[in-house]
């Protein structure tokens, strides 16, 4: 017994030091003291002696810097250099672009919640709010999405003119260049509100404000280029597009086969240094109507006119539409969301070097320029459009499910529908928090490479789930397209968001964890960077520091993951109020588990992990759900811990924890080295898998929130266009919702009388009149039921068409003939 007590004392001291990340010196002192005190009190002198010898044998050599570096770190450095895959230039550039924000804490295994909560609450300025309440509101009032998506396959001229006049294309352009100079939050809010009315309008506005000519010029343009283009872009005098993608370069954008050859040509009698460009681009948004084309290509200088390099690399230029040889104007047709999108081509198009963004000295820097700017646009455009879409789904589906009656009840009362409504409400809460957190990171000056990928992936994937649920709840009403259908086009268009700006499968499998692991890990990048230090002594010193930091980090995460798992996340640092304290502790647990698994996977699989995309994707999911859950907790704090929001927060939080557990379990179960997989299972799930998905009861509370007006629903539908204008069915449905709810008890009274067979009339209004005369309902109730019946009829109605209205204006035969004639 005395031996066990002594061993236990040493073990507890070790565990406590590891848990709190104490230094090696502290560990040595604490364990020796614990061993000696408990060992001597318990009466186990020999055990104490042997344990102290072992403890000192570990600590002393490790504490002797010179010995440790020479005997341990040096051979490990050799091995590490051999097994570490060399980062390609592209990967190196991607890693160097971007910053690490709170996601770094989540990857640390010991997040500092005060860092999260001390971040300023994101808020719109007075001017930005006025813009939302003014031009954005007005633009929403002008949108007829059926006219755009079916009749015109374009925005009507007055909408184009309004967008340009009110500088919707200049949100990211500073005021000094005539733009709006908006914060990322305002930019996001504008896109969200537009997306509630039309995915086509929102996409059209998103693109010039995302990665493209304006942003590239702001960062790299020469003064002349900035002064020329930015004021014109701000007011839509110039319409930009940015062309990277081609038939052979999709997800792997670096493999573009488009090229430019530096050469001289006589232009207007003057010999001009320039380049001949040959390119074949497709899928380019706004290209058909663009007046200035941002073009990415690989630049070669075979005659060495610019220097001694022949292959200069990826380069970016701005080509005016009038450039001779630039073929542009045809359109693609992306899933019935007809924003302007099309191909562009050119062969041996000569342009002067002055068209290079930033001037000739920026030749070959194109890839760096792109990745440095990518994260900001990706953090805003698609997450905001998706968030606008899901907020509109809450407003529309919540109201529709309450007013649509079948089997004598609101369909919202059926548990099957309730399940879909709960998903819509819970996932919208999470998506909105995620979108806001990522915009706030941009406003804090971060370049959130990993969060932007998380936001892009999850906002659009959840958008897909919610769009599907919304359509299911609407039944035939969602399926029959026409001016009365507000849900079908949103559902159709979701895959566009899934595909663009890094298609989702690749974003999940390759980018979130791949970049997150190296970028956010406190030691991996340092170890890799140490390899490139030229002086051996400095290299060894840096590597040694990173390596032993890393080992301590790994041990600590194993202990933390196990301890927090063993206690069911009941101990540890926390924040917030009593309602969410446990949530922070759960996040501590899974943060430690992620850090432990990430280290183990990287340590055992090394460079091969890059190709084990299914493992990498699952660990990426864990990081994502940790990030999303943190964003929700921050939002809860920022909004003053509203009690009304708790069911939404709880539903979304438990969903995230359930998904974290599923992802961790999948990653560990499929880890190829079985003994390690077994060990990880014990350390991560000491009691097995205990997380459960949100309960049915919680789901019912969420469904209740989204089917009745209230403060939580108002927050969920923030920045949704709900003005009950003629063009806004969702707005009018929501305006009727209070009446629909007020009518419910009256309908029950009336229904009872109906069932008793006391009415002679067969039509509804006739029966209502009889009910009034019989005193079953009073005059006000009569008016209410009549008003609701008429209002609801409008919303459950669908469109029908004369067959001639549905044929295409131009048949395929006409089109082929036209193409043949042109050829
Ligand atoms: C409507 C629309 C608008 C667009 N606008 C523009 C624009 O304005 N400018 C521009 O330059 N481009 C634009 N794009 C291009 C867009 O960014 C690309 O379509 C996208 O990057 C994917 O390329 P791809 O379609 O060729 O798919 P592919 O690269 O062929 O990919 C097919 C599938 O394979 C997956 N995949 C590929 N590599 C991997 C990997 N290593 N690991 C796991 N999965 C992988 C992808 O995720 C995808 O699911 C647009 C595209 C669309 C559809």
* Sequence stretches where pLDDT stays below 50 over 5 or more residues: none
Note the quaternary state here. single chain
Proportion of residues in β-strands: 5-15%
The share of residues in helices is: 55-70%
Domain Acyl-CoA dehydrogenase C-terminal bacterial-type: 518-801
Pathway: Lipid metabolism; fatty acid beta-oxidation
Protein name: Acyl-coenzyme A dehydrogenase
Domain Acyl-CoA dehydrogenase/oxidase C-terminal: 364-509
Describe, in plain words, how this protein is organized in 3D.
This protein is of the alpha+beta class and 823 residues long. The strands form two sheets. Strands 1, 2, 3, 4, 5, 6 and 7 form a seven-stranded mixed β-sheet that branches. It has a two-stranded antiparallel ribbon with strand order 8-9. The longest helix has 38 residues, at 366-403. It is flat. The relative contact order is 0.09. The structure holds flavin-adenine dinucleotide. Flavin-adenine dinucleotide (FAD) binds at residues 241-245, 250-251, 283-285, 334, 341, 496, 499-501, 503, 505-506, 509-510, 613. The chain crosses the membrane at residues 28-60.
């Amino acid at each position: 017994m005395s031996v066990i007590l002594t061993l236990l004392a040493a073990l507890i001291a070790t565990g406590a030091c590891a848990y709190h990340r104490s230094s090696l010196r502290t560990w040595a002192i604490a364990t020796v003291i614990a061993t000696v005190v408990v060992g001597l009190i318990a009466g186990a002198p020999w055990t104490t002696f042997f344990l102290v010898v072992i403890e000192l044998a570990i600590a002393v050599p490790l504490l002797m810097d010179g010995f440790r570096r020479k005997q341990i770190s040096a051979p490990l450095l050799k091995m590490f250099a051999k097994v570490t895959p060399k980062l390609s230039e592209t990967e190196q550039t991607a890693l160097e672009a971007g910053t690490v924000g709170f996601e770094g804490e989540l990857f640390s295994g010991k997040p500092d919640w005060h860092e999260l909560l001390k971040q300023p609450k994101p808020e719109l300025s007075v001017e930005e709010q006025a813009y939302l309440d003014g031009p954005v509101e007005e633009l929403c009032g002008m949108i007829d999405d059926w006219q755009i998506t079916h009749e015109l396959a374009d925005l009507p001229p007055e909408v184009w003119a309004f967008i340009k006049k009110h500088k919707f294309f200049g949100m990211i352009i500073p005021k000094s260049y005539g733009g709006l100079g908006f914060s990322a939050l305002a930019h996001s809010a504008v896109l969200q509100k537009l997306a509630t009315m039309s995915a086509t309008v929102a996409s059209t506005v998103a693109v010039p404000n995302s990665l493209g000519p304006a942003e590239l010029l702001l960062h790299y343009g020469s003064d002349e280029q900035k002064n020329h283009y930015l004021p014109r872009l701000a007011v839509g005098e110039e319409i930009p597009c940015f062309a990277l993608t081609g038939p052979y370069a999709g997800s792997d954008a670096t493999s573009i086969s488009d090229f430019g050859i530096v050469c001289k040509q006589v232009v207007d009698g003057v010999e001009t240094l320039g380049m001949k460009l040959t390119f074949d681009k497709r899928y380019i948004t706004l290209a058909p109507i663009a007046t200035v084309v941002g073009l990415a290509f690989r630049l070669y200088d075979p005659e060495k006119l610019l220097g001694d390099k022949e292959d200069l690399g990826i380069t970016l230029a701005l080509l005016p539409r009038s450039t001779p040889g630039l073929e542009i104007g045809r359109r693609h047709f992306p899933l019935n969301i007809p924003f302007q999108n099309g191909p562009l081509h050119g062969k041996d198009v000569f342009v002067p070097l002055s068209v290079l963004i930033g001037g000739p000295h920026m030749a070959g820097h194109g890839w760096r320029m792109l990745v440095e700017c990518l994260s900001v646009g990706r953090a805003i455009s698609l997450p905001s459009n998706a968030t606008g879409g899901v907020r509109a789904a809450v407003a529309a589906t919540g109201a529709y499910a309450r007013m649509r009656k079948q089997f004598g009840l609101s369909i919202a009362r059926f548990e099957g529908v309730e399940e879909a409504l709960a998903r819509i409400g819970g996932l919208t809460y999470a998506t909105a928090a995620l979108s806001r957190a990522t915009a706030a990171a941009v406003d804090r000056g971060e370049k959130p490479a990993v969060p932007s990928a998380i936001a892009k992936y999850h906002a659009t994937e959840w958008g897909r789930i919610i769009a599907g649920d919304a359509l299911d709840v609407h039944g035939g009403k969602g399926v029959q397209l026409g001016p009365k259908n507000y849900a079908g086009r949103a559902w159709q268009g979701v895959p566009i968001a899934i595909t663009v700006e890094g298609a989702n499968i690749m974003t999940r499998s390759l980018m979130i964890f791949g970049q997150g692991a190296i970028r956010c890990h406190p030691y991996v990048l340092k170890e890799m960077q140490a390899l490139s230090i030229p002086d051996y002594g400095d290299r060894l010193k840096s590597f040694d520091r990173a390596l032993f930091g890393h080992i301590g980090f790994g041990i600590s995460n194993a202990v933390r993951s196990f301890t927090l798992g063993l206690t069911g996340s009941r101990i540890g640092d926390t924040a917030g109020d009593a309602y969410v304290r446990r949530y922070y502790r759960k996040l501590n647990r899974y943060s430690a588990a992620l850090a432990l698994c990430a280290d183990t996977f990287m340590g055992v699989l090394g460079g091969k992990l890059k190709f084990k995309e299914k493992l990498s994707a699952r660990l990426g999911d864990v990081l994502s759900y940790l990030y999303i859950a943190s964003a929700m907790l921050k939002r809860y704090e920022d909004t003053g811990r509203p009690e009304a929001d708790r069911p939404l927060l709880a539903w979304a939080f438990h969903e995230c924890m359930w998904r974290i557990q599923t992802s961790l379990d999948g990653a560990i179960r499929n880890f190829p080295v079985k003994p390690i997989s077994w060990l990880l299972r014990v350390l991560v799930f000491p009691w097995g898998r205990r997380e459960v998905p949100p309960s049915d009861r919680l789901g019912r509370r969420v469904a209740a929130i989204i089917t009745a007006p209230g403060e939580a629903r108002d927050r969920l539908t923030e920045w949704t266009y709900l003005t009950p204008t003629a063009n806004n069915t969702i707005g009018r449905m929501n305006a009727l919702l209070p009446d629909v709810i007020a009518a419910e008890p009256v309908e029950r009274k009336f229904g009872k009388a109906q069932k008793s067979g006391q009415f002679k009339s067969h039509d509804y209004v006739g029966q209502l009149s009889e009910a009034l005369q019989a005193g079953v309902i009073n005059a006000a109730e009569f008016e209410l039921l009549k008003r609701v019946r008429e209002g609801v009829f409008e919303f459950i109605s669908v469109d029908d068409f004369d067959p001639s209205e549905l044929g295409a204006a131009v048949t395929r035969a006409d089109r082929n003939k036209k193409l043949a004639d042109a050829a």
